[in-house]
Design a protein that fits this description.
2 domains; alpha+beta; Immunoglobulin-like
């Protein structure tokens, strides 16, 4: 009887120990599960993208429109360029964020425009519904669209293919995006000369501001006033030349339009309100 009693006691002790191990394991698992935060849900937003200016294997101006849904945190966003050869290229951050629709931002070569409500992307905390981002960049591949990824960036949140047309606006229907004029009647800066390398007005060594460019402008308004360049607001300045102070008052009095003379060394572009001129370059 003693041997049977010892066996029974051993079985009971073994069962108790096994139950203890199971309970202990479950406790540890519970602590791990409770201490691990739940995975963040990817926010949902309606995003579309448009290539405003696309020269294959050259420079591009692309806009992305937040058409509705959740607000997105800037620091949790990354953008990837889809290329037509099937690759993804991580892009630099956009230049600007606008309070405006693609129709407001569709005009080619407007550069860093001064639309109302414009902010520098690096100082914006959120990307909200109704806002448009603008990217200006160079690529060795022809773009096909943009991928948007949200922290932790493991998968695509939104994929936007480029469209041939911005919107069904009257301008696009009657012409094409390249023939559209800014309907606000704002100033359009125009480069008179030099329009290409080694034209008159440029010295061979391109040093010491020995090159000369001449600019004028087109406007549908009788008189327009555009403030000169301020820090963070490049709406009236010459990129490539920091010593030239642009004028502020412009008139459409026919032959009385101003001719602006600018000395530069390598290249210069006049950014004026929502537009920019062609580039004057030398060398």
């Amino acid at each position: 009887m003693s041997m049977r009693h010892d066996v029974a006691v051993s079985e009971i002790i073994g069962a108790v120990l096994l139950i203890g191990v199971v309970i202990g394991g479950m406790s540890i698992l519970g602590v791990i599960l409770l201490s691990t935060p739940p995975p963040e849900e990817t926010p949902k937003a309606s995003i579309s993208s448009y290539c405003v200016q696309c020269d294959p294997y050259s420079s591009y101006e692309i806009i992305m429109y937040h058409g509705g849904g959740e607000t997105l945190e800037r620091q949790k966003l990354q953008f990837f360029l889809q290329t037509k050869d099937g690759k993804l290229e991580k892009m630099d951050d956009p230049d600007w964020v606008y309070e405006g629709t693609p129709e407001d931002c569709m005009y080619p070569s407007i550069g860093s425009s001064s639309l109302s409500g414009r902010e520098n992307w690096t100082t914006s905390d959120m990307w909200k519904s109704g806002q448009t981002l603008r990217f200006i960049f160079n690529s060795n591949s022809e773009p096909a669209g943009l991928d948007t990824r949200y922290y932790p960036f493991k998968s695509t949140m939104s994929r936007a293919e480029f469209t041939d047309k911005i919107r069904e606006s009257p301008c696009v229907k009657e012409n094409n995006p390249w023939g559209c004029n800014d309907p606000t009647g704002e100033l359009i800066p125009v480069l008179i000369s030099p329009t290409k390398t080694n034209t008159s007005g440029c010295e061979d060594d391109c040093s010491g501001d020995k090159c000369t460019a001449y600019f004028t402008y087109n406007t549908t308004s009788t008189k327009v006033s555009i403030p000169v360049h301020e820090t963070g607001k490049p709406w009236n300045n010459f990129d490539g030349v920091s010593t030239v102070v642009p004028q502020e008052v412009f008139t459409s009095s026919g032959s009385g339009k101003d001719i602006i003379t600018v000395k530069f060394s390598k290249s210069v572009v006049w950014r004026l309100n929502r537009s920019k001129s062609a580039k004057a370059s030398c060398g």
